[in-house]
Amino acid sequence: MSRLRSVATAAALNRRTLLAAAGAASLTTGLGLALRPGPSHATGAPVGSLAGEAPVAVSGRAPTAAPGPYTHGTTLAGVATPGSGSGYRRLGDGPGWKRVVRGELAEPRSGRADRRAPLAAFVQFTDLHLADCQHPLRLEYLRSTDQHAWRPQEALSVPGAIALVERVNSLHGAPATGTPLGFVMTTGDNTDNNAHSELEWYMKVMSGGRITPNSGDPRHYEGVQNSGLDLYWQPDSTVRDADKRKGFPHIPGFLAAAIGEVRSPGLRLPWYSTVGNHDALPLGCYGQGDPYLAEYAIGGRKLMSLSAAEAATLQQAISEATDPVGLRFRDLLRAHTREMRAVTPDEKRAPYTADEYLKAHLDPAYTGAGPVGHGYAQANVDAGTRYYSFRISDDVIGISLDTTDAGGHYLGSIGTAQATWLDSTLRDHRDEYAVIFSHHTSTSMENTRPDPARPGERRHSGAELVTLLGDHPNVLAWVNGHVHKNVITPHSLPGGHSFWEISTASHVDHPQLARIIELVDNKDGTLSLFTTLIESAAPYRTDVTDLSQPGLAALYRELAFNAPGAKPARAGEATDRNTELVLKKG
Predict the structure, then answer these.
(1) N or C terminus of the chain: which is more exposed, having fewer CB within 10 Å?
(2) Number of Cβ within a 10 Å radius of residue 86
(3) Kind and range of the H or E element at 120?
């Protein structure tokens, strides 16, 4: 019995009461419209009883494998690779990454490729960070002490994400087995700064539509990239800023193109959404509620520079969570009012609440390929929760967690109510496999201060969540993001239970990847999880004067590679990229 389960037992809580309090009294109506009731299900109507629900995942059927394997469109076939030399380097075609078999949790048995049967296949997006790059409430000026605190490619996050959608739409199935892809799951930080403008862009990128990634003045860009400050790349200007001295190009018309209209075809697959700290908190680290910060976000003044000493102090306060609701940050902004530059006010830059996040997903305008709510339901709105379960296939369920902390800070945790709901859901579906989704990783869930909305509820760390998941032999994988790096970790727990933790690099930083995950039964007492990384559909080679939508997406990738402070290690080792992860059946 896990420590978390012991907490619930000690409290002598009735399971149905607890699930109701957590907004999950019925999986079919509250937190997972795709799940059928299990043998000890609390209550609820059969699946499909609610009118207007779109098909989900693979419609509850076990997938049928098409001819496979294949490599086209994946990093098995090729990867964007820089040319030789130093300074700003152009990208071109490079060799692919081979698949690596990992047997830490089970011995890979010969002949399994001839026996295996597919269970499910899906795509993971993570850390899109769609950025309103002119937003006043941004921390670009931290670049004076940390060169990676601002990214030269940020203005192109929307066309870059659209190119990723286009890549998924072009795939013919899962590369290892040919299994039809069932859905796409985003594992958080879909937006960069918890702004209404960004939330609208995200919903349209995923579901389809025309997007103008601009706020403030509808005619002109107003941000750090035309400020004339040496600290930032000034693409339109001939000024020899710090980035140009490192080889960054002069591109006349870049900023006008960056805020111009683009079009997303929307995903052709159903898609689901998981919340990250940048979706829940202004700047990804401050608790909501300070009226000054909310007014500053929509107002007409923007701070664009800060001394290195002050930037270092602010960055330390953020890192150490000594100012979780931003009171000292508010005082710093007030102290620099005279140095702020005028920008056009815009109410669309206001931070969105948890309720508004949920309602955006439930808005019929953003249903796209479905399902309605993209995992969330009206029961989530009523209960104020952002976690749910859903059916992936006949034999597999998915569970999306909310690991963000409303009290502030970029690290995560979960409360006892959610942990107990998770434990109950896994027990209710003990005869089915489970895949867990969250934003934070097991090593980035260390923020266990109480949630201001639930001050009496204990928060639980990543280590505790690993223990809880290890109590359930039906858990195959925990899929997450947040760390902007490819990392695959085996977890072997007492009692012989084990699972794989699959963390995928972001789509805002180099190497800008997403991941296909396939689940198969090897029919020999083991399972295999195939992971295959994909890049966006943007071409590798780019003429910097090409400011078309595909040209901007290609620039997005190349600028990310060349960004000062970019870390090639984020791609991970070969064992973290394209893999076959073998696992014993529970």
Answers:
(1) N
(2) 7
(3) strand 117-125
Cα gap 511→562, rounded to integer Å = 11
**pLDDT computed for residue 61 by the predictor:** 57
The two three-digit tokens of residue 23, written as one number? 């907004």
Q: What is the SS3 assignment for 521?
A: strand
- Cα separations (Å) of 561 from 50, 93, 482, 508, 571? 47, 14, 19, 10, 11
Q: What gap in Å lies between CA 252 and CA 217, rounded to an integer?
A: 19
State both tokens at 422.
């998770």
Residue ranges of alpha helices (H) inside 171-213 are 196-207
If we measure between CA atoms, which residue out of 331, 468, 455, 359 comes closest to residue 405?
455
Q: Which of 537, 573, 533 is nearest to 76 (CA)?
A: 533
CB 546 within 8 A of CB 461: no
Instruction: State how far the alpha carbon of 225 is from the alpha carbons of 140, 221, 232, 487, 565, in Å.
Output: 10, 8, 6, 33, 18
Chain centroid to CA 125: how far?
6
More confident residue, 11 or 112: 112
Closest CA to 493 of 517, 519, 475: 475
Q: Which of 79-88, 261-270, 420-429 has the lowest mean pLDDT?
A: 79-88
What CA–CA distance (Å, rounded) separates 523 from 88?
A: 50
Question: Per the structure block, which two tokens stand in for 138?
Answer: 């941004």
Hey, what are 576's tokens?
Answer: 């973290």
Cα–Cα distance measured from residue 152 to residue 139, given in angstroms and rounded to the nearest whole number? 14
Is residue 295 within a helix (H) or strand (E), and if so which, with residue range?
helix 291-298
CA 190 to chain CA centroid, Å, is 5
Contact 467, 498 (CB under 8 A): no
DSSP string, 479-497: EE-SSSS-EEEEEE-TTS-
Contact call for residues 465 and 419 (beta carbons, < 8 A): yes
- Each residue's pLDDT tens digit, 235-252: 999 999 999 999 999 999
Q: Residue 178: its pLDDT value, please?
A: 93
In degrees, rounded to 5, the angle at the alpha carbon of residue 381 between the alpha carbons of residues 376 and 384 is: 105
Q: Cα–Cα distance between 157 and 509 in angstroms, integer?
A: 10
**Structural tokens at position 42:** 């609390």
Strands of the sheet containing 433-437, edge to edge, are: 388-393, 396-400, 433-437, 475-480, 498-503, 487-492
The number of residues making up the chain comes to 586
Q: Quick one: tokens of 247?
A: 């080889």
Q: Which residue has the tokens 């997403």?
A: 514
Q: 441 with 413: CB under 8 angstroms? A: no
Q: What is the pLDDT of residue 475?
A: 98
Q: Is 344 exposed, middle or buried (0-12, 13-18, 19+ CB in 10 A)?
A: middle
